[in-house]
Specification:
By secondary structure, the protein is an alpha/beta fold. It is 38% helix and 20% strand. The strands form three sheets. It has a nine-stranded mixed sheet with strand order 3-4-5-2-1-6-7-11-12, sandwiched between helices. The structure holds adenosine-5'-diphosphate (ADP) and alpha-D-glucopyranose. Adenosine-5'-diphosphate binds next to helix 1, strand 13, strand 14 and helix 12.
Length: 490
């Protein structure tokens, strides 16, 4: 099968969150399974062209926008650890700046940038002479590609048999922009066959809605989230649209790229280990504490290290942690290590916490790939109290690293973490239901009690390390959906 994955984020070139990880491993898995997969993404100003060996192709593509034509130059690299080609769209106007989205407020021209990107996908494919069976769009950034495919490109013999699949990684981001300007840029007029209601959302245009309605199949990143977005406010206003489309909506659990996230081989951690050599996990903990300048005299006092790596946003339940962390540090023997960046109020709070409770509170504000691996390997308990979580990757990394996840039962967290039951010895973590600090504290109390029962703790760790959340399985499920999509358009 010829597969195109289009994404605003692809690991390791440009990453803001889990979307990048998924966009990086899926094509590698498809290639391993014998498919021909390529990736298309923007060439952002901050991508390290030298490190990743980006090469200019001397190909300029023309992209129709509004009543004129714009241009992009193509660059090429390969996904590390594979031979999957990645094509980068170079545009001085749209992408040659630092950052992917321009967070926290977003670049003022994101509507134009993403319309340009969505349309450029097809012009790139034609220029490369890569005739796709499937285009997989990810989130709202490329969602208009689903409309461009149906409205413009399928009329062309070249794309007549191309299916469009829209993946939803997060319903909280839909790309809602002023209607008139956007429809003009996208060349969507009143004269077309599809109803304008497919574009409209509360008087504006909703890019994600467009992707959902125009796609042949729609995926989201866990089975539980696939239900939540239809039946609860997790649909963020698109519940009805998703229900209308329910026959074409599939939840596929994300996976883990065990080439990147594997304690046995991870080059970024202090000592490699397996379920049989957990003493090396202890080395990671000690070394992490030592490098975090915990005084030598305190290094060996046995208390759980609670780790957290997260965007600091409301989605991640940071407010719950904020409400309770001082009480926890005052009441329980524990250390807290956090790596994160995001909303200024949360960043300030944790900076303050770091000063007040150092060396039991070890905070790093920022984005740091290397430290994220070190925390996964060092921590005993990994905290993910998300208010909502389409899938979540860190809880699955944690399972692999023998770091026991403590999560709220929502979305993909509920699909991957089960409360440990000391009577049956089943389960791989600790789970709470309602997003309030009391339930979070109760779960933490259960986890800390278990931590001091060393035989029990080892069992929980090993239950987690046995889980197979590989990206291979996840990628296979996408192929099934692609086959359904192709059967549908035949
Ligand atoms: P989301 O995509 O909603 O942020 P996921 O759990 O799916 O949540 O993925 C988050 C990804 O981003 C993980 O790979 C995680 O390790 C990484 N990450 C988040 N914050 C940071 C940070 N401050 N530094 C390094 N990596 C981070
Ligand atoms: C989104 C979600 C996260 C998911 C990731 C990759 O950013 O917030 O839960 O794991 O996408 O699909």
């Amino acid at each position: 099968m010829n597969i195109v994955l289009a994404s605003a984020e692809v690991f390791p070139f440009a990453k803001a969150g889990g979307l990048a990880d998924v966009s990086g491993y899926l094509p590698k898995e498809w290639a391993k399974a014998g498919h021909s997969a390529i990736v298309i993404m923007p060439k952002y100003g901050h991508i390290d062209s030298q490190k990743y060996k980006l090469e200019p192709l001397n190909i300029t593509i023309s992209v129709p926008i509004g009543s004129w034509v714009e241009y992009a130059q193509l660059w090429r690299a390969v996904l590390p650890g594979s031979s999957v080609p990645v094509y980068f769209l170079e545009s001085a106007d749209y992408f040659d700046r630092h950052g992917i989205y321009g967070d926290p407020d977003g670049f003022h021209d994101n509507d134009r940038r993403f319309i340009f990107f969505s349309r450029a996908i097809f012009e790139t494919l034609r220029a490369l002479d890569f005739r796709p069976d499937v285009v997989l769009s990810n989130d709202y950034h490329t969602a208009f590609a689903m409309a461009f495919l149906k409205i413009h490109y399928r009329r062309d013999e070249y794309f007549a048999h191309t299916a469009g699949v829209q993946a939803i990684h997060n319903m909280a981001f839909q790309g809602i922009y002023g209607a008139e300007h956007l429809l003009y840029l996208a060349q969507i007029g009143l004269d077309q066959f599809y109803p304008l209601s497919w574009f409209e959302f509360r008087g504006a245009v909703n890019m994600l809605k467009v992707g959902i309605l125009f796609a042949d199949k729609v995926t989201t990143v866990s089975p539980r989230y696939a239900m939540e977005i239809r039946y609860t406010d997790q649909g963020h206003g698109l519940q009805d649209v998703l229900n209308e489309k329910s026959a074409d909506l599939v939840g596929i659990l994300n996976g883990v790229d065990y080439q990147v996230w594997n304690p046995e081989t991870d080059p970024l951690i202090y000592a490699n280990y397996t379920a049989e050599s957990l003493e090396n996990k202890q080395t990671n903990k000690l070394e992490f504490l030592r490098r975090s300048k915990v005084p030598e005299s305190e290094l060996y006092s046995d208390m759980p290290l609670i780790g957290m790596i997260s965007r600091l946003t409301d989605q991640k339940g940071i407010d719950l942690v904020q409400e309770i962390i001082e009480h926890l540090l005052n009441s329980y023997p524990l250390r807290f290590a956090l790596l994160g960046s995001g909303a200024a109020n949360y960043e300030d709070f944790f900076r303050h916490l770091s000063q007040k409770y150092y060396p039991r509170s070890l905070i790093k504000i920022g984005y740091d790939e290397e430290i994220s691996h070190k925390i996964e390997a060092a921590a005993d308990i990994f905290l993910m109290p998300s208010r909502f979580e389409p899938c979540g990757l860190n809880q699955m990394y944690s399972l692999k690293y023998g770091t026991v996840p403590l999560v709220r039962a929502t979305g993909g967290l509920a699909d991957t973490v089960q409360e440990f039951d000391p009577t049956t010895l089943q389960g791989n973590g600790f789970v709470f239901d309602n997003p309030n600090p009391h339930e979070l504290e109760a779960a933490l109390r259960r986890a800390i009690a278990a931590y001091y029962d060393k035989a029990l703790w080892k069992r929980i760790i090993q239950n987690g390390m046995q889980a197979d959340n590989s990206s291979t399985r996840s990628a296979e499920n996408y192929i099934k959906v692609f086959e359904w999509a192709l059967a549908k358009i035949r």
